[in-house]
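Protein in question kept underneath.
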Amino acid sequence: MAVAWSRPSLNGSSAVSDGRPFEQPPALNLEIFSWENTDAINPSLRGSHRQMNATLLSAVALSALSSFIAFAADGLLLQPGERVITQPELRQSVGPEWSVGKGKWEPSEGVLKVTDIPEERHIPVLHLATGPASLIWECEFRFNAGKSFLVGCDAQKHVGRVVIGSKNFKICEDSTEVKGKSPSHTLSETTVDLKSDEWHKLRVESVGDRMAARLDGVELKAEHPYLATPKVRWWFAAGDSVQIRNVRVTDGKPL
């Protein structure tokens, strides 16, 4: 396969490299010639079309493969589905799909600021109505003076959660959790070293009885029957002065 480009000449016609004008020249033309056409234009190109064809096909295949690998690598369990559940701009409000459970959640200039209300005696919580969808939850957060950051999900009670401190990152299921009596059951855990004044990127994915999370490139995966409990909502929970931005929640489909 050979490729020839047309170019405008001084008299307004178009010509290929041998100078012969086209009868109806376009402003810009990219033509793919057969063996016969290529040989008619320039016999010296005989046979070279096969090499060019293989080269171009290889380049296209490599580009497609690279894009697929990069896309697949971004997902842990899921790739984004067609529905964006929420992607708040965080300018004036978070949107009607959200509801405050505890504390104050104040959006301004694209950043959501968390404030604890001491008399509530509970970490600030912000709920998102999602239904039982497989889900991808993405955001960035900064601790500031806060000590903890969580993303979790509920049915009639808590189902599961991702818990992050400055030195610890874990996935838990909540079948054993009773407030003030027994803690959540840790399924997967690792150490981290998060700076309080830096933004950290989090991605959480949930499908069936599996949950996965990536924090600044560190990945955790967990599986437990209780995680398959149909969810009605997800939530943020965060310590006082924590900031959140670039929130995006979508449904997901298997990789």
Q: What stands out?
A: The chain has two domains: 2-74, 79-254. The longest helix spans residues 48-74.
